[in-house]
Amino acid sequence: MSGKSLLITILILIVAGVAIGLYARPSQQQLPQLSSSTTTQTQQQGSAGTQTPPTQTQPPANLPPLTATIKAQLAASSGFSVLVSYTKTGFEPSDTSVAEGTTIRFTNNSGSSLQLCGDGTFSSCKTIADKNFWEYTFTTAGTFNYKDADSTAHTGVVRVK
């Protein structure tokens, strides 16, 4: 290889190395930092390169507190595949099809207590306080109807295949 070819090869390798180094370099932009108190702190750079004080955002006002009851329910939960939410207008979804062995979480988001009753599905009616939940695993194929005992127009059905 001639001296000129060697010089060109070295220059190409240097340029390629610099380009790869610039491309692979981590971004200098800072990501928001999460604190353990559920507030988010972000730092923004001003036009002169100075940092402004962190801003804090509060969690949504409608987020229920994590009570001892909810903590115990979550600890006992083995997970769920389908979520049925109860609101002032009824169950959503009101018609659900699942496979045998599926666990459904029934949540109460109505603002008042829910009396969840099934036609032979559950061993008894379950009272679910507002912002709480109850889970049931459907182990047998069939069609299972349920309702709010306090508002019988609010009904639902689970079809287990």
Q: How would you describe this structure to a colleague?
A:
The chain is of the alpha+beta class and 161 residues long. The protein has a domain at 80-160: Immunoglobulin-like (Sandwich), CATH 2.60.40. It is built from two helices and twelve strands, in the order H-E-E-E-H-E-E-E-E-E-E-E-E-E. The protein starts with a helix and ends with a strand. Mean pLDDT is 77; it is low at 26-47.
Task: Compile the SSE list and pairings.
Blueprint: H1 3-24, E1 33-34, E2 40-42, E3 55-57, H2 68-76, E4 82-87, E5 90-92, E6 95-98, E7 102-108, E8 114-118, E9 126-128, E10 133-138, E11 142-148, E12 151-160
Parallel strand pairs: 4-7, 6-12
Antiparallel strand pairs: 1-2, 2-3, 4-5, 7-10, 8-9, 8-11, 11-12
Overview features:
single chain, 161 residues, alpha+beta, Immunoglobulin-like, 5-stranded mixed β-sheet, 4-stranded mixed β-sheet, 2 helices, 37% strand, elongated
